[in-house]
Amino acid sequence: MQPFVFLIFGATGDLAKRKLFPALYNLYLDGHLNNEFAVIGIGRTEMEVSRFRMFVREAVSEFGRLPLQEGVEWERFAARFDYIAFDIMEADAYASLLAVVEERERKMQLTGNRMFYLAIAPQLFGTVSNHLKRSGLTNTTGWKRLVVEKPFGHDHASAEMLNEEIKRSFAEEEIYRIDHYLGKEMVQNIQVIRFANSMFEPLWNNRHIDNIQITASETVGVEDRASYYDRAGALLDMVQNHMLQMVMMVCMEPPSRLNTEAIRDEKVKVMRALRRYNEEEVDRHVVRGQYTEGKGRQGMVCAYREESNVNPASTTETFVAARLFIDNFRWADVPIYIRTGKRMPEKVTEIVIQFKALPKRLYFNKNDDLTPNLLIFRINPKEGITLLLNAKKQGADSQIVPVGMEYCNNCGDAPPEAYESLLHDAMLGDSTFFTRWDEVSLAWKFIDPIRRAWDKNPRSPEEYAAGTWGPAESYKMIINDGKRWWTGE
Ligand code: BG6
């Protein structure tokens, strides 16, 4: 890794505290940051550097995967952190930031590589990236990279505008758009399981796969994010990014080689082939739900509309289920069911590949409800793979039972967190697991008509009681196709 300065905008915010500082520290302890690097935190709140280092320390000890090492080790790490407070909307303030960066680079003999991380409200991305350019911060002898968080826009038009703005200061290959699901171990593992095992790829098509199901359920409600969430809803918060990214990973063709652009090219082809629904078709293929009062993990919880800072008449969806189709040769007529929501009974993210049943002969005609073969990618909180096969029950008279072959990816030491892996990649200049503009753009083109249809429709979302797997309509959708949800059942 080359030495670099890491500038974090929004350094006193939640993301920096929960994810970025702990990830940096873990990378440091694991020896991935052994070269010279400096971190400059930028925030609105005035504070001494010593106070900021204390903030980083608290973040690491509360949220770190690895325990904090007291003494010299910690001091050495903390000494790399600086802090500067200013109003990031003020163009003139960036001159002082440039001075601090240059001074750090001189003192630590760094070579001018700069990584800018925008852990701030997305509506500020454009302005900040303009100011970075105008102040000369991007005019460096080393490399420069911009890392931005989601959401990238709130529809296609706004995403395009934002992209145009950022592009004035950074080239596409210098922009790292985060989708933290792409940093998850088992999401990255999908392509390895698919392309490094001869037993799956020959079956990975509409001749052998009956349907695919992707569930990302959460037990939490809207928490303290109502001001964002009530505008976004589950469609923008989860489907436009994480869910579609998982669809791409499962459905892409094998890339010609394992390099960033070859992989992203194949992902984009999935998005091009993803059937777009017009506003009239939306109701048939997409279900939106909103939680009502119910029994959550910690007892009774209130309805979404009663959450603080949520409009009591809100029609924002906290649940989405949809039936998708990839209109290409490989996937013709294979439904891909996706489902995500808040206040569901379990926190679980998994992808189920359901293989087709065998002809109704031999065992299949004896027992019609024989479980189909399932390959399950467990993304979170369990990480691993389960392959469900049918086998003879021991001793019993030709009774057939499903048997699971399990691989657990997180039964030993805790694997790296998504942010560790993504930060590390960005530091190395590897953008494979970040989203390219055309992926984002096509995702919005799929989402926009759904949003428009819902916005025009005065009907409220379907209700589901907190602590359940979603509204009845999400069951009807799949049952009417002669199938069933596997996750959580
Ligand atoms: C975020 C969403 O992108 O992903 C949150 O904004 C959601 O609403 C979170 O809770 C889920 O991530 P994970 O890694 O916990 O599945």
Topology record:
Blueprint: E1 4-9, H1 14-29, E2 37-43, H2 49-63, H3 72-78, E3 81-85, H4 94-107, E4 114-118, H5 125-134, E5 144-148, H6 156-167, E6 175-177, H7 185-195, E7 209-217, H8 226-251, H9 260-273, H10 282-285, E8 286-292, E9 294-296, E10 299-301, E11 319-324, E12 336-341, E13 348-355, H11 362-366, E14 374-380, E15 384-392, E16 400-408, H12 418-428, H13 437-456, E17 462-465, H14 472-479
Parallel strand pairs: 1-2, 1-4, 2-3, 4-5, 5-6, 7-12, 8-17
Antiparallel strand pairs: 7-13, 8-11, 9-10, 11-12, 13-14, 14-15, 15-16
Bound molecules: 6-O-phosphono-beta-D-glucopyranose.
6-O-phosphono-beta-D-glucopyranose (BG6) binds at residues 218, 237, 349, 380.
Written account of the structure:
By secondary structure, the chain is of the alpha/beta class. It has two domains: 146 residues, NAD(P)-binding Rossmann-like Domain (Rossmann fold); 292 residues, Dihydrodipicolinate Reductase, domain 2. It has 14 helices and 17 strands. The protein has a nine-stranded mixed sheet with strand order 16-15-14-13-7-12-11-8-17, sandwiched between helices. The protein has a six-stranded parallel sheet with strand order 3-2-1-4-5-6. Helix 5 links the parallel strand 4 and strand 5. The longest helix is centred in the middle third of the chain and has 26 residues. The model has no long low-confidence stretch (mean pLDDT 94). The site of 6-O-phosphono-beta-D-glucopyranose (BG6) has 4 residues, from loops.
